[in-house]
């Protein structure tokens, strides 16, 4: 609670107001996000599923030519459904596989382990709960080659500078010739991208507005949700997609003992999602001193899994 309160106060005190995306995910927010994942407009999960269905065997074969034992580490692993196809493809090709799902939620990791062990008998699943910036460096060291998975196009939630820092962090927690598999949402028709964050049913708007409701519920906030509107933008040059909550009138909002003034039509930035082209994915490798081995794109070239070697 203290971190939530501290970060909300800091974000709303900025000249350009912000709220941290990571606080979207209370119980209601998580439920709404699951609805978003099933929306027709939100193409990302379907693209990733297609790639994993069509390319997991090729990916596993490519990696098995380099080693016969592997540790696979899933960052933000969730309930395991994203990685079942991939892990199934690896099982017959390796003598030994240890899978380390890392996630902030201990309960979701229990579900992950149950799901994977039911789907893939014989797979060694070793869940680690906590912030993966803290848990990844503490994983046991061995001589076995590592494959670190960062799925869901979550790299897009980082600014270009922060993405470089993040990949360097992965590199620091890898050995020479270890592998990274990172999902990227690619630049495409701007209308297609914008629709993914502005669905007709308004689920994404509810998802964003729920953050204000959470502040009201947990931090004694007094936001009038009817006086804010969800508004996403996309810049096709930079590839930056942003979500905002716009104040519909000049108003003052209290949160606990603090008050925050809003001008009419002043915006709170709630989310950033950056889209890449192939040259930018290559540049990320150059900037961090790793090697891009291969792309595994979907059939529409909306999305790609990039395999890197450290």
For the biggest sheet, the summary is: 8 strands, mixed
Write down how many β-strands occur, each being a DSSP E stretch of 2 or more residues: 13
Radius of gyration: 20 Å
Strand percent estimate: 25-35%
Give the number of helices.
Answer: 10
Give the overall form: globular
Considering the protein shown, what is the CATH homologous superfamily of the largest domain? Vaccinia Virus protein VP39
One letter per element, helices H and strands E, the order comes to HHHEHEHEEHEHEHHEEEEEHEE
What's the quick description here?
The chain is α/β, with parallel strands linked by helices and 310 residues long.
What can you tell me about this protein's structure?
The protein has 2 domains: 2-38 and 191-274, no CATH class; 44-188 and 276-309, Vaccinia Virus protein VP39 (Rossmann fold), CATH 3.40.50.150. Strands 1, 2, 3, 4, 5, 6, 12 and 13 form an 8-stranded mixed sheet that branches. A 3-stranded antiparallel sheet has the order 7-8-11. The protein has 310 residues and is of the alpha/beta class. The longest helix is centred in the N-terminal third of the chain and has 21 residues, at 44-64. The protein has helices at 2-13, 27-37, 44-64, 84-90, 106-119, 132-135, 160-172, 190-196, 203-219, 278-288; strands spanning 69-75, 96-103, 124-125, 128-129, 145-150, 179-185, 228-235, 240-247, 251-255, 258-262, 267-274, 291-297, 303-309. It contains 10 helices and 13 strands.
Q: Descriptors for this entry?
A:
Rossmann fold; globular; alpha/beta; 10 helices
Secondary structure blueprint with pairings:
Elements: H1 2-13, H2 27-37, H3 44-64, E1 69-75, H4 84-90, E2 96-103, H5 106-119, E3 124-125, E4 128-129, H6 132-135, E5 145-150, H7 160-172, E6 179-185, H8 190-196, H9 203-219, E7 228-235, E8 240-247, E9 251-255, E10 258-262, E11 267-274, H10 278-288, E12 291-297, E13 303-309
Parallel strand pairs: 1-2, 1-5, 2-3, 2-4, 5-6
Antiparallel strand pairs: 6-13, 7-8, 8-11, 9-10, 12-13
Helix pairs in contact: 2-9, 3-4
